[in-house]
Amino acid sequence: MGVKSVSLQEFLTLPVHAVYGPEHIKANIPHREPFLLVDEIHMLEKGKKYIGIHQVRQDEYYFKGHFPGRPVMPGVLVVESMSQAFGGAVMQDVAQNSKHLPLFLSISEAKFRGMVRPGDKLEMPIELLRLGRISKIYGEAYVEGKLCAQATLNFMLGESPHE
């Protein structure tokens, strides 16, 4: 499946049934500051539709070098933010124990269409296409209603080598 021709932008107007904050997210994924790139997750339809939210701060570590004087969030980190929104929303439903980590299998049809800058509110609607030991999502990223990125992401549950 390639990039969807139907936009997920409509997700941004759907009713929110639950809001997951930092503690819920951290209970589901191993990421921590300064590499935690999702602040909140809105559950629209459990097991199917979510929106990840990241308030992009001026002091994010990567802005020191990308790019000095003209900071732009790297596209790969926008995709990583989408990935973390997925994991932060549903890993407790997928992983049988804390030894499992969500790992990328593939990123396909990634397209970058706009810049994300300090001060932006990054909204990332994601749709779960398959959920299990191997999972697949389609995600988009918006700033002020403008599409900035889109990609199809595939994940697998891997064993943590540190447990």
Structure description:
The protein has 163 residues and is of the alpha+beta class. The chain has a single domain (9-159), classed as Roll (Thiol Ester Dehydrase, Chain A). The protein is 17% helix and 39% strand. It contains 2 helices and 7 strands. The protein has helices spanning 22-28, 75-94, and strands at 18-20, 40-45, 49-55, 100-112, 121-130, 134-143, 146-159. Strands 1-2-3-5-6-7-4 form a 7-stranded antiparallel β-sheet. Helix 1 (22-28) crosses helix 2 (75-94). It is globular. The mean pLDDT is 92.
Helix content: 10-25%
Residue-averaged pLDDT: 92
CATH architecture: Roll
Q: Could you give the order of the helices and strands?
A: EHEEHEEEE
Using DSSP, what is the number of strands?
Answer: 7
CATH class: Alpha Beta
The radius of gyration over CA amounts to 15 Å
Secondary-structure content class: alpha+beta
Let me know the CATH homologous superfamily.
Answer: Hotdog Thioesterase
- Main sheet characteristics: 7 strands, antiparallel
Poorly predicted regions: none
- The dominant shape is globular
End-to-end gap: 35 Å
CATH topology: Thiol Ester Dehydrase, Chain A
Strand order of the largest sheet: 1-2-3-5-6-7-4
Give the strand content: 35-45%
* Tally of separate helices: 2
* Number of individual domains: 1
